[in-house]
Amino acid sequence: MTVILFLAFVLLAFFIGGIPFGLLISKLYGKDPRKEGSKNIGATNVLRTVGVLPGLITFTLDILKGLLPVLAVKILVGKFYYDDLLLFEFSPSATALGAVLGHIFSPYLKFKGGKGVATGLGTIIVLTPLLSVVCFLVFVLILTFSRIVSVGSIIAALSYASLLTAIKLMKLPLSQGEFYYGIATAVFVVFSHRKNISRILKGQETKFSWKKER
């Protein structure tokens, strides 16, 4: 029974993570971010092509669709998995991965979606609150100097995986699920930015601006 609940939580997180808030909000403004800018449904492209407010709303909702499923499982996990230590340890991180994968491979958009960064941030706010603050500050710092969101996102994701690795090597408290989730998420975030990486190498990546593109 606990295995079924485990899979149900992960699957539910996948479908919640897949909700294309960027597209839905943009449609309210008569826009489709898949046809403008970087042609992505993420908050950055919504901000760039639709406006600051729609972009910030998208960013917030994308965070919440990662945060809420993991928080719910963290609350429920003791009730359902108290007799199974393996599922107890891995269910929050597996749910987190489900949400991130849902965002990147949205089942509502023929398995095409966003980059997974905001949703990933939402998950680690619950899983590793202190590290989420550190990684967000890394993102802000890199963005400030580079003015390229994708560079900040990639470095923040790799920083998270690196910090988890350092914690593990120092044998500090860290669950196996959180460690493997951090590594997997970094891999998927880099993968989702493969086109951005190509543009960065060519010097063609768009610089971040709070102003809407005309």
Count of DSSP E strands? 0
Q: What is the helical fraction, as a range of percent?
A: over 70%
Instruction: Give the H and E element order.
Output: HHHHHHHHHH
Biggest pleated sheet: none
Strand content: under 5%
Distance between the termini: 54 Å
Instruction: Report the uncertain regions.
Output: none
Class from secondary-structure proportions: mainly alpha
Mean of all residue-level pLDDT scores: 92
Specify the number of helices.
Answer: 10
Radius of gyration: 17 Å
- Taken from the alpha-carbon principal axes, the silhouette is globular
Short description:
With 214 residues, this protein is mainly α. It has helices spanning 2-17, 21-28, 43-49, 52-81, 85-104, 117-127, 129-146, 149-169, 176-192, 194-201.
Description of the molecule:
Helix content is 73%, strand content 0%. It has 214 residues and is an all-alpha fold. Helix 7 (129-146) packs antiparallel against helix 8. The longest helix has 30 residues, at 52-81. It is globular and about 50 Å long. The mean pLDDT is 92.
